[in-house]
Amino acid sequence: MKSQVTALGMRHRAAIGITEETDAVAIVISEESRRIALAMRGQLTPPLDVATLEDMLMLHGKGSGA
Predict the structure, then answer these.
(1) Is the CA virtual torsion 22, 18, 49, 2 positive or negative?
(2) Helix or strand holding residue 62 (H, E)
(3) Beta strand segments in the chain, E
(4) Residues 11-56 pLDDT 10s
(5) What CATH number should be reported for the domain whose range is 10-63?
(6) Stated pTM of the model
């Protein structure tokens, strides 16, 4: 059985990796399913709708001093 991370595509794994090493936030859109996910602090959210993604980005931006 594959772990959750190895079952993901390359873009999803890259998004998780970059957010483990930096304070970046990555938005990932699946080519196959068109689902949107957000990677932060090495974690990937479940699929998000656009409104929830906007809310999460606004919250993250306020916390970073932007």
Answers:
(1) negative
(2) helix 50-63
(3) 25-29, 36-40, 43-44
(4) 999 999 999 999 999 999 998 889 999 999 999 999 999 999 999 9
(5) 3.40.1700.10
(6) 0.74
